[in-house]
Amino acid sequence: MAAGVLATALTLAAVPGAPAASADPAAPPGSPGSGQPMPRDDRAPGDDDGPQRWAPPLAGLTTGVDVAEGTARLSTTRDGTETGPAALRGAERQGLLDLGAHQFATPVNRIEAPVDAEVPPGTQVTVDVRGQGPDGQWTEWIPAAAGAPAILPEPTRTVAARLALIAPAGVSGPVVRSLEVSADQAPTDARAITPRASYRVFATREGLVGGTTANGHRIVANDQFAALPSRRALSPNGKGDYSVRVCTEAGRCATVPIWDVGPWNTKDDYWNPPGQREQWKDLPQGRPQAQAAFENKHNGGRDGFGRQVKNPAGIDLADGTFYGLGLRENAFVTVDYLWTARSAALGRAVTAGAGPVVERTAADATAEDGGVVGDGAQVEVQCQVAGTSVEGTQGTSNLWLRTRPDHYVPAAWIQGAPPVPPCT
Q1: Contact present, 214 and 85 (Cβ < 8 Å)
Q2: Which stretches of sequence are listed as region Disordered (predicted)?
Q3: 150 and 49, same structural domain?
Q4: pLDDT score of 43
Q5: Which of 73, 104, 291, 390 has the fewest CB within 10 Å, making it most exposed?
Q6: pLDDT tens for residues 103-141?
């Protein structure tokens, strides 16, 4: 961790004109993972009443996918090693191709994505889509297919897509030649404002330094990220579109992005209501299937791959997060799923690889260390207060942002936070 991130004690003087946070630098329109829309390619001329269409090329950021000669397929290393998310520990081959974002002419919420592909028995091809709200926040990824459209929580013009290729270990995977996204608007109820999901689940240490996560991140020593058992909350590499705040019983917290899928399942978005949950709809909201299997012999005590569940893990933590929380063995923790709160003000920690931002118990760089915020993670912001001046990636500022009662981070390390009132 860089000293400037941890606690460089600077002057108490306010810095005139220093912003609390800056806007996210613009990426080329439509670039995968950027969230920026592509030029519109909507209805065909004279087809004003039909669905809007988008035919993304098979190009973009890949993880475990090779794109060549107009096709996409699961990749292998030069020595023939199969690729897959580190947290799954070889249970499944999985590859992702980020197809970027597209801006439709009018808002849509019902999306189909038929694929032209060879799909051997036991393998899968899925197109995951998500929509961007007026506040810039993304919905979760939702699978879309011909005859089984994805229904976004609310209409939006900006939709991102991601191609997922899946195969059992040792099995030849699917080959995709093309796909087309078809979108229109279906009648739905207004999206409800719901409290942020927060549950007590069992946390395990991922480790696996040198491995590759589901989003392509290469795991390093003292890394700061987490894994959840569903692709619906998998952030692009380096970003924290989906982040969690993990707190121990002692009250120490770490806010980190979701960069991997696992440890046991891949379709268990247990933080969602049963009717919305992708799999294991018979379980109550907030209860991971692995926990139900371990404690109550759900599914015969096995996970979705048929493996005997040996612990009740609902979240996997990278080494830096695990030890930074003061954990020395696997334990139950409280997890806040930050993207599920519609009313939350969110900023993003940007440290350019200098290490995590330290959360302080007062707006002072010498105050007690109360937790960490990993690089790229979204952080919930409640209010702001003047304190010691800090120099960070966003400039020099004496403003501090409260993240929870009596805990603050320097605004100089937080990007894109909306205006918040003074702390009282």
Answers
A1: yes
A2: 18-67
A3: yes
A4: 53
A5: 73
A6: 999 999 999 999 999 999 999 999 999 999 988 899 999
